[in-house]
Structures are given as C-alpha cells and as structure tokens.
Amino acid sequence: MKIRSAALLLFLLSPVLWAADTDWGGKIENISQYSNIENETYTQGNKAGLWLRSSFSSEVNLFARAGYIYRYEKEEHQHIPDISDLYFYGRIPMDDGNVLSYNAGRFRFTDTTSRVLKSVADGFQVKFQNNTLPFTVGAGYTGLVFNLTSEVVMTPADKLESDDQFLLAPPRVLGFAEIKSPLMKGGNSVKLSLIAQMDLRSESKDDYLNESQSGKLHTQYVQLSADGSIVPNLYYSVSGVVQTGQYNIPEYDSSEAADYTYFGGMANLKLDYYVEPRFNTTISLDALYSSGDSWDDRGDYSGLLLGGSSTLHRFVPVSSTTKGYVYAPQMGNLIYGDLSVSVKPVEKVQLLLSAITFMRAVNGPIFDDLIQEDSGDALYLGEEIDFTVNFRPWSDLGFALTSGVFIPNKDIQTEKDISYRIGGYMSVSF
C-alpha cells in the first residue's frame, strides 16, 4: 500500500517535475568482506539507487534519493527498500544580506560533529544565516523510516527490533537547535547545540519492550564544540557533550518497575596536520572519551540492570557510531586514540594507515559481545591496525581495498587471540 501510494504521488508530481529544471543520476555500490570473526566470515552489501533534483526557483527545490539494498550477513539474506531523501529545500534572501534556508521532508539530521545525531527522519530544519549569531532549529520523526536502514539503536528493544528485521524503525521524536559564533581569526568558530529525543513506544502494546524486559529511554544533550586553525597547516576540532536522560522500565512478570536517570558525557579531539603538499600527506589524530557504567550498576550492556545505583553514566548517542574496521565498538564506556597517515603518491591513488588504541573508561560492559564480566578487569582492550588503498581512475568510478587486524589485550578473554578482516568496495555513478 505504501509503495502504491508513493508511485501515485510521483505520477501526480510528474507534470510539475517536467516543467522544472531537473537533473538526475544514480549510483551502484558493492562491499564484500571476509573475516575470522564468528558469524561474520563472509558478508556482502549491494546498493543500487537513483537521485533526482528539481529546481523551481532559489526558494523552492526538490531532492529525492531512493534505492534497493541487498545484504548478506550472519548467514542471512536481507532485501531492503531505502528511501533516504525526499524533501523540499530553498534559500530566502532577507534584509541586510541575511538568508533563511529550510529543508522539509525526509533527510538526514546531523549535529555539528556527527557524534550524537546522524539519522534519517521525517521533519523540518530551518537555518538563519547572519553576521551576528547564525542558528539552526529542526525536529523529526523516525517511525516511518525502514528499520534495517535506521541508525538509531539506543536500547535492548531497539536492537531486538533491528535483529528481527521489523518493517519500520521505533517511533521517536528528535529535536535539534544550534547557535554558531561569527567566524574569528583563522576561520575559528564556536557552536552550542541542544539535542533531544523522546521514545514514543507504548509500554502496553510493544512486544519488543516486553521480550527484552527493557524500557523507554528519553535523552537530552548539550554540546559545545569549536573548530578552525591556530597555526599554519594544523586544523582542529574539539567537542564536549553532557548527556542527561530518563530510563523507565515498566513492571514485568519477573521484575518490578524501575526508573533510572542518566548522567554521562563525551569529549572528542581531532587534529589534522598537512605535512607535504606534493604528496598531499596528512597526519591525523582522533581521540575520544565516553563515560560508562561498572558491572555493579549494569549486568551487561544489553540492559540487565543490577540495581547498584539509580543513576547510570553510560554515554548513549542518538545514532549508533562505531570506530575501527575489525573491532568496531560503539561509543559508551569507550576511550580510543586513532593516529593515521594519509598519502597520495600519485594523483588517483590514496594510501591510508591507521593505528587505534582501545580502552574502557571503567571496568564494565561495552556495546560489544567481546567483553564479558568474567573475561578480565583490565581497562586496556587492545590495538587495531588498518590499511586502505583508494583508487579513483575517473570521477564516476571508485575502488577501495581495506585490511585490518585487531590484537586484544592478553588479559582480556576474547573469542580469538587475533581477529582480522579484509574487504573491497566499488562504486559506479552515472
């Protein structure tokens, strides 16, 4: 029914689109990977999509992007429709050189660092660009996005729905506001962001809440960030986030109702130093700290609470974000430092080598099956080395080959002593 309604809408809009200045294109992508990690021995993803842009005026434009995704992972075949963009946008000139721009429809909501919010939703966003204090506000709803393309996995119920391939994502309301300082010397700027999400699931009707024995999580974030350059060829980005929240678990047959509060945080520093212009050599550092809970306060990361405290400190972003090619844990009770070097020996080839050190903030669970309570109390988790070769012979054709190895701390009990992954990527645009 939804597909027929969308087709009817496109048919009705076709005369309008034909009259506009319209451009279109497409992209085909493939990712194939092999690993010695259990249930991830061989994985593949294929995506074919089309995009369309229609310009009626500077004030009214339309952008749409949709496609089909095929995934093979955990020995399962997944066929996924993907409507990632369908929105109107425009710029409205105002007095004194100010500009009001807007998006309305389905698009990706992103905060200034993409560390908290980076998710597709249906809603609106308004930007007021001026020389004094530019600001952005927006709101969206996630409940109409296909679940297998959703990036919002915050609770055990969310993960259970994702594993079960439920058609639509859990219903949440997102809110976002940001103010930005005027550009200062060296292109430096400071931004203050307020982000919030509210879980709209019904406790009495949601089977995933009952099956996971978990509750609804509402979270709020205050983020302060700055970026720019202080010395020549050295660029920085620094951010800090304070998170609050409410985790309400209803009464189940095997447990009583419980209400928990969240108070966590995240800090991130990124440095890029451009060393050699001839080979476009760049040395980068990406360091992050995210707060976590001990085993006394949380039985495991998927939601078993032991009641040690009524306040939880695990940092939980709205959108799931991972680090690393082999290990790839999500934020929350995680510290990492990523030192990388990028070189372009010839015009169409880029080489990227990175070394990532993983640690826990406290002796407790992380969002990964690697660390169990009885596997050791060390905070140092291990080291990962990744190497990537990017080759783009033409602007519409790209290839990448990536390999990585994760060497865990010998004092941490893991599935394998050393884990590895190798994979290839190809994209064709037209």
Task: Please give a quick description of this structure.
Helix content is 7%, strand content 55%. The protein is built from three helices and 19 strands.
CATH architecture of the largest domain: Beta Barrel
Characterize the largest beta sheet: strand count, sense, and whether it forms a barrel.
Answer: 18 strands, antiparallel, barrel
CATH class of the largest domain: Mainly Beta
> Uncertain spans, ≥5 residues at pLDDT below 50?
none
Number of strands: 19
* CA distance, first residue to last residue: 30 Å
Briefly note the CATH topology name of the largest domain.
Porin
Radius of gyration: 23 Å
Number of helices: 3
H-E order: HEEEEEEEHEEHEEEEEEEEEE
Structural class of the helices, strands and pairings?
A: mainly beta
The best one-word shape is globular
Mean pLDDT level: 87
Helix content: under 10%
Strand content: over 45%
User: How many distinct folded domains?
Assistant: 3
